[in-house]
Amino acid sequence: MSIPQSAKQILKEVKRFIPPLSEGLHKGQAGRIGVIGGSRDYTGAPYFSSFSSMRLGADLAHVICDPEAGQVIKGYSPDLIVHRVLHPDSSVDSIKKEIEPILSRLHAIVVGPGLGREDYMQNAARIAIEYAKKNNMYIVIDADGLFLVGTDPSVIKGYKRAVLTPNVVEFGRLCESMGIDQKGNPDGLAKSLANSLGGLTICQKGGTDIITNGDEVLKVDIPGGLKRSGGQGDVLSGSIGCMLGWALNYEEGVGRDKDHIVKTERLPLLAAYGGACIARYCSNRAFAENGRSMQASDMLKQVGPAYDHFFGDEASL
User: Fold this and answer.
1) How far apart are CA 46 and CA 143, in angstroms?
2) Which residues contact 312 (CB under 8 A, 6 or more apart)?
3) Distance, CA of 311 to CA of 19 (rounded, Å)
4) Would you call 18 exposed, middle or buried from its count of C-beta atoms within 10 A (0-12, 13-18, 19+)?
5) Residue 317 near residue 15, CB atoms below 8 Å
6) pLDDT tens across 190-215, in order?
7) Which residues pair with 34 in a beta bridge?
């Protein structure tokens, strides 16, 4: 798969904030990512999200979840750090006490994979988002995290270090929540939504992914696979989460190229772009190998090759 000429310059910018592989870095310095999700009914989504972030190159991935879900997720992979602390009878104060010390160790968080809509899980999402805002953390919101945003947009409105990744149904609900007329030009809807939410970044998933912070608009039209298996959006959220972790590393000076500075305000936009390219490549290659039998687990095997394709030493940028 060749890289479109229109994408090469943007991918060069993304590559500038990816930390180098270096003996000078210690464990965790190249990305500590947290996923808040994993209710009693949904265990695959937080696994796909957290594990794709590690496959892309994050050093560590934490999953904060319901105890029943955590027992299953721990069985999927010994590489994940699983915190089984979101009990159904937990009060808001007890959730804060449990998860804030975990969040304090992370570079970026992904809220929503397998979250569900039960009160205790939605409370955990709200607490994680408020913590991220208070501590200037990067955050991805997906799936039932977007249900929370649609119910109460104030929870994230105006926070420009956030990336929202709605599919077509979630995007429609967010537009309705923000009073955006969806009968207008479809190419401008994502920009309108980003602006209405105060300039955060929207990654509108579709045949072409539209990524915008309300000012700049980027499009990712790299072909994906034809199988719409569940879990593909979780690979996307995990990939963006990893990219945002690297963005914070970059802000802190890890691998910073002083001759080619990436502006801080563009980092969420570029992270979403890089993550979307990774996820679409993985979908394309997994479908090419598996056809109709393709599952999200097949995409995980493609994350490393996707990185090499776009950002490796042999990438044609």
Assistant:
1) 11
2) none
3) 11
4) buried
5) yes
6) 999 999 999 999 999 999 999 999 99
7) 62, 109
Give the separation between CA 124 and CA 257, rounded to whole angstroms. 37
β-pairing, 108-111 vs 138-141, is parallel
What's the CA gap between 250 and 267, in Å, rounded? 9
Under the phi-then-psi rule, with left for phi > 0, alpha for psi from -120 to 50, and beta for the rest, what region is 198? left
Residue 159 CA to residue 191 CA, distance in Å, equals 16
Helix (H) or strand (E) holding 61: strand 60-65
Selection from 182, 192, 145, 180 nearest residue 165 by Cα:
145
Which of 44-48, 49-53, 257-261, 305-309 is predicted least confidently?
257-261
The structure tokens listed for 104 are 């304090």
Tokens of 170: 């979630």
In the sheet that holds 81-84, the strands lie side by side as 81-84, 60-65, 32-36, 108-111, 138-141, 162-164, 201-204, 209-212, 217-220
In terms of C-beta density within 10 A (0-12 exposed, 13-18 middle, 19 or more buried), how is residue 141 classed?
buried
Rg (CA), the chain: 18
pTM of the predicted model, to two decimals?
0.97
Q: Do strands 138-141 and 209-212 pair parallel, antiparallel, or not at all (unpaired)?
A: unpaired
Q: Of the candidates 124, 121, 117, 195, which has an alpha carbon nearest to the alpha carbon of residue 157?
A: 195
Helix (H) or strand (E) run with residue 271 in it: helix 267-290
Find the farthest-apart pair of alpha carbons in the chain and give their distance in angstroms, rounded. Answer: 54
Kind plus residue range of the DSSP H or E element containing 220: strand 217-220
User: Could you report how far apart the first and last alpha carbons of the chain are, in Å?
Assistant: 13
